[in-house]
Specification:
This protein has about 260 residues and is mainly α. It contains 15 helices and no strands. It has one domain: ADP-ribosylglycohydrolase fold. Helix 8 runs parallel beside helix 13.
């Protein structure tokens, strides 16, 4: 989960100013958490307290309303409808990382990932994106190889993970769909050598940088089981106390490695 939040914060300044290079500053005075972090923490809160996803998403939005939410999500919150809006956006995938840590079997992870997605993202691609990311985190944290993770995700979700970053990067652009950003984020992890490498790979594709770094970083943390302490310190410097408290509670309970 720390990997997801760090990726979000690092990628935040490049979301609307995309870069096609891995040579960039990790943190600046403008680096800040976005809706990716807020809703990831909302998911963590649900798992810690056995509350309801729909209510948690609404409540966390009300507390942090200016963090870059998508139009569809904001409209869903404002109209107070309990109907999902058939989204296939990557919002379902960006917030799901806690699910990959909190359960002891892959079927449980897949079930809970769908549950976390479906209140808003009930499109098949929205559900698939959340399940794929949560499954990757579960497999990574339970000692599976990159080849095994890649094989499972390719077979189960029909994602094309055989492309290289060098093949993707030249023509890749901003894409907020699950099907257009989740596979690329997974590839950013697959081609990495460590946590930071994974985040740099994702951002250097020049797309939806905060969300792609959030996804790649979430998987990378679970796989490498290490994030530089300076990166962890930088994210807590930028989190409000309320969010930081929940993150510490969740990681203390589930993210031990």
């Amino acid at each position: 989960m720390l990997g997801a939040i760090a990726g979000d914060i690092i990628g935040s300044v490049y979301e609307r100013n995309p870069v096609k290079t891995r040579d960039f500053e990790l943190f600046s005075s403008d680096s800040n958490f976005t809706d990716d972090t807020v809703l990831s923490v909302a998911v963590a809160e649900v798992l810690l307290s056995d509350t309801d996803y729909e209510n948690a998403y609404r409540e966390f939005y009300r507390q942090y309303p200016n963090q870059g939410y998508g139009y569809g999500f904001r409209r869903w919150v404002m109209v107070e409808t309990n109907s999902p809006y058939n989204s296939y956006g990557n919002g379902s995938a960006m917030r799901v990382s806690p699910v990959g840590w909190a359960f002891d079997s892959l079927p449980e992870v897949l079930y809970e990932a769908k549950k976390s997605a479906i209140v808003t993202h009930n499109h098949v691609e929205g559900i698939k994106g959340a399940q794929a990311v949560a499954a990757a985190i579960f497999l990574a944290r339970t000692g599976h190889s990159k080849a095994a993770i890649k094989g499972y995700l390719s077979d189960t979700f029909q994602y094309d993970l055989d492309r290289s970053l060098n093949e993707i990067r030249p023509d890749y652009s901003f894409d907020v769909s699950c099907q257009g950003s989740v596979p690329e984020s997974i590839i950013a992890f697959l081609e990495s050598d460590n946590y930071e490498d994974s985040v740099r790979n994702a951002i250097a594709l020049g797309g939806d940088s905060d969300t792609m770094a959030c996804i790649a970083g979430a998987i990378a943390e679970a796989y490498y089981k290490y994030i530089d302490p300076e990166i962890i310190a930088a994210i807590f410097d930028r989190l409000p106390g309320h969010l930081a408290t929940i993150v510490k509670q969740f990681t203390g309970k589930y993210c031990r490695y």
